[in-house]
């Protein structure tokens, strides 16, 4: 790992954490409510990660700094597995098992769907063929 990558990830992580904080500050979670804010943050982050992966990894069209800054840094801090986990445990502790199960299933299924949508939307708009990796 190079110092340049560490700085990019750290800088992006700071920016992503501040963005997440701002969203939670604007739309705070209330005790006993469904954690919609965290769910939406994670879905937006999954979509954006799909875009970053499509442009930067699959197509090779992004500069070398983009993946550590945006993928690992900004989006790694913008999305929150920790928040998701704590909110799930809190719902379980409060006896809200059906909400907790719905939150986990919705987060996982919708997260994969939005990341996939990011891949497809970016590929469609870019109009570039995906490179043949020889595994077809």
Short description:
The protein has 136 residues and is mostly helical.
What features would you describe in this structure?
The chain has helices at residues 3-26, 36-58, 66-78, 81-93, 97-126. The two termini are 32 Å apart. The model has no long low-confidence stretch (mean pLDDT 88). It is an all-alpha fold and 136 residues long.
What is the typical, i.e. mean, pLDDT?
Answer: 88
Rg over alpha carbons: 17 Å
- The helix content, as a percent range, equals over 70%
Outline? globular
Distance between the termini: 32 Å
* Helix and strand sequence: HHHHH
Could you give the count of β-strands? 0
Low-confidence stretches: none
Strand portion: under 5%
Number of helical runs? 5
* Sheet having the most strands: none
Helix and strand composition category: mainly alpha
SSE blueprint and pairings:
Layout: H1 3-26, H2 36-58, H3 66-78, H4 81-93, H5 97-126
Keywords:
single chain, 136 residues, mainly alpha, 76% helix
């Amino acid at each position: 790992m190079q110092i340049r990558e560490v700085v990019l990830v750290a800088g992006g992580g700071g920016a992503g954490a501040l963005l997440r904080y701002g969203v939670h500050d604007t739309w705070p979670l209330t005790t006993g409510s469904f954690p919609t804010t965290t769910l939406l943050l994670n879905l937006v982050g999954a979509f954006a990660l799909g875009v970053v992966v499509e442009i930067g990894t699959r197509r090779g069209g992004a500069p070398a700094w983009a993946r550590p800054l945006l993928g690992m840094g900004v989006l790694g801090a913008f999305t929150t597995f920790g928040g998701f986990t704590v909110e799930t445990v809190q719902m379980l502790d409060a006896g809200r098992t059906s909400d907790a199960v719905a939150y986990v299933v919705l987060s996982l299924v919708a997260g994969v769907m939005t990341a996939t949508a990011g891949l497809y939307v970016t590929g469609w708009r870019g109009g570039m063929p995906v490179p043949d990796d020889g595994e077809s």
